[in-house]
Design goal:
Number of strands: 3
Order of helices and strands: HHHHHEEEHHHHH
Strand order of the largest sheet: 2-1-3
Largest sheet: 3 strands, mixed
Length: 286
C-alpha cells in the first residue's frame, strides 16, 4: 500500500510541475485540465492514506489484544488480497495496459497466490458501476484502455485510473511498445530477486519475452541445458533498442488522442471510454 502512496505522490508532483509550465506558457485551458487531474489524484491519495491508517490501527489493536509479541505465536496464513488489489499490483509492475492472461501469468511469476483470468471477467464492469454510483470514493479504479481513434474501451486491456491519460490510451503501435516496455519492467523485477533461484513461472515468462525480441537470446553456444537461458542485460538492451524505433510515433498518437479525449469526454468517459456512436461522431472535433 505504501508503494501506491509513493506513486500517487510522484504523480501529484509531476502534475504540479506541468501546471507551472502551462502557467508560464499562459495556456489556461491546459492549466485547468491539469488542476482537475491533480484534484482527482489528491482524492485518491486521501482515500488510500485513510485506508492505510485504518489498516495499521486495526493491526495494532489486534496485537494489543493478543498480549504477546507477534514472533512468539505461530504465523498465521496470510489472507489473500482481493482480486482487484492483485490486479493493481501486477499493473503497477508492468506500467502498461495488460490483458487478463498476462496479468495472471505475471502474478504467478512474482506474487503469492493464484489469480485466474476468469476472475477478471466482470471486474471492469464492477469498477465502472462503483465509480458511477460514488465517483472518487476509491483510491483507484481498474478501467479499460481507450482506443486512440474512437476513444472507446479497448477490448480486454486493463489499466489503472491514476495513470496519466496518455498512458491509458492505445494506438496502432502500442501493442508492440507495451510488449517491449513490460519486458523491461519484468526484467527489472527479476533482477531485484535472486536470478539463480527465480521461480519457474518467472523463468518461463522471461524466456517467452526473449524469444519474441530480436537479439534478446544468448548465442546457441552460450546456452546451458539446465533450465531456459536468461540473460537479463541482453534482454534489456534488445528491448530498449527496438523500443526506440517505435516510441516517438506511438507517443505522438497517444498524446493527440488524449487531447481529443479531454475535449470530448466527461470524467467517467476519461476513465471508462465513450460510447462507440458518440466517439465516432466527435472524432473530427479538434
Amino acid at each position: 500500500m505504501h508503494e501506491h502512496l509513493d506513486a500517487l505522490e510522484q504523480r501529484m508532483q509531476q502534475l504540479q510541475q506541468a501546471m507551472r509550465r502551462a502557467q508560464l506558457a499562459r495556456d489556461n485551458g491546459q492549466v485547468k485540465q491539469l488542476r482537475d487531474d491533480l484534484r482527482r489524484v489528491q482524492r485518491a491519495w486521501d482515500a488510500l492514506f485513510e485506508q492505510a491508517e485504518d489498516t495499521e490501527e486495526a493491526a495494532a489493536r489486534e496485537e494489543t489484544s493478543r498480549g504477546t509479541p507477534a514472533h512468539s505465536t505461530p504465523a498465521e496464513p496470510a489472507t489473500p488480497l482481493p482480486a482487484r488489489e492483485q490486479v493493481h499490483q501486477v499493473l503497477t509492475l508492468l506500467a502498461v495496459p495488460a490483458a487478463p492472461k498476462l496479468i495472471s501469468t505475471v502474478h504467478e511469476a512474482f506474487f503469492a497466490g493464484a489469480l485466474a483470468p476468469s476472475r477478471l471477467t466482470s471486474l471492469r464492469r464492477d469498477e465502472e458501476r462503483s465509480y458511477r454510483s460514488a465517483p472518487g470514493a476509491r483510491p483507484y479504479y481498474l478501467c479499460p484502455a481507450l482506443t486512440s481513434d474512437l476513444l472507446s474501451p479497448a477490448r480486454g486491456l486493463l489499466t489503472v485510473s491514476t495513470w496519466p491519460l496518455e498512458q491509458r490510451i492505445v494506438g496502432p503501435l502500442s501493442a508492440r511498445v507495451h510488449f517491449l516496455t513490460s519486458a523491461l519492467n519484468i526484467a527489472d523485477a527479476a533482477e531485484r530477486l535472486d536470478t539463480d533461484t527465480l521461480p519457474l513461472a518467472a523463468r518461463q515468462l522471461l524466456t517467452r519475452y526473449a524469444q519474441n525480441i530480436p537479439g534478446a537470446q544468448p548465442p546457441i553456444q552460450q546456452r546451458t541445458t539446465v533450465g531456459p537461458p536468461i540473460d537479463l542485460p541482453l534482454l534489456r538492451r534488445a528491448a530498449q533498442d527496438e523500443l526506440t524505433l517505435h516510441t516517438d510515433t506511438d507517443t505522438t498518437t497517444r498524446t493527440e488522442a488524449a487531447q481529443r479525449a479531454r475535449y470530448q469526454l466527461d470524467d467517467a468517459g476519461l476513465l471508462f471510454g465513450g460510447s462507440f456512436q458518440s466517439a465516432r461522431r466527435l472524432r473530427s472535433v479538434p
